[in-house]
Amino acid sequence: MRMQNVKVGRNSLCPCGSGKKYKKCCMNKKQKVEQNFISKPSIPTNNLASYYAKKYQIHLKKTRDIELIKRAGKLVIETLNLVESELKAGMTTEEINTIVHEFTIKNKAKPATLNYNGYPKSTCVSIDNEVCHGVPGNRVIKDGNIVNVDITSILDGYVADANKTFFVGEPSPEAHKVVSVAEACLRKGMKKVRSGNTIGDIGWTIQKYAEEQNCSVVEAYVGHGVGFAFHELPHVPHFGKKGDGIKLIPGMVFTIEPMINLGKKEVKVLSDKWTAVTVDNSLSAQFEQTILVTENGYESLTPF
Ligand code: MF3
Ligand code: CO
Ligand code: CO
Questions:
Q1: What distance in Å separates the CA atoms of residue 185 and residue 83, rounded to the nearest whole number?
Q2: Buried-most residue among 115, 120, 131, 166 (CB within 10 A)?
Q3: What is the DSSP letter of 137?
Q4: Nearest residue (CA) to ligand 1, atom 3
């Protein structure tokens, strides 16, 4: 999610987890919180749940919620697998959109991106130097491209979000590198998810690995709470400091979706108002899963 798209009360705690009031911290970034829940957050049944709702606007998921997010997640992964099986040089990004749209509808679900803040398509397809939010259209996929397909489905009112970057034909060594670093970043981030660790632990481990590999972490877009709505709090930055930020507790559900650049971290948005590209034109890759915090660690609700 784009950092600028989130709004919080000025006197509540800043969602970045700094512990400061929002007005004294990130408020000047003009953030806006998604309040249009698709399914109603269940009423908190314990003090910790109320505390997280009040302080952080984090809505914990209960057993039944998790079951339903997992069903949406299963569909997202089946859709990604279908795209992978059909992806080939010569097809347009619009054709990928059609595959995603039709399979989603056939399975009684809705593509969350369609008409989301004016986004016109049912998936995002981001190629090579495109970081995220590539809008499907008449662009033709070529051999050697790296193609990220990001799918978010709403099934029975619950939302799951995942993406993968695919190779088309033989990847260049650079393409291979950025894609493997991005996938490793996701997996290393996931391994930090357990009750008692913090949001900062996830970002720290991702940033450390990416930079050791001479890659950079995009800061303009972050992971996000998900399940009742497409974009919920907290923000999940893919950079940061060990021990910083909100403490993870069981029932939290959020995405980890590191965008990793082969060159510099800076991005810009194209004139279509959506497609983000690397400023230095370097390759960028991303992997995303929807993750549940459990008592002992984590469970992916969109496993791959
Ligand atoms: N699925 C993306 C994410 O991981 C968000 C896409 S929003 C869109 O958060 F409007 F660009 F589609
Ligand atoms: Co996401
Ligand atoms: Co996504």
A1: 23
A2: 131
A3: S
A4: 1
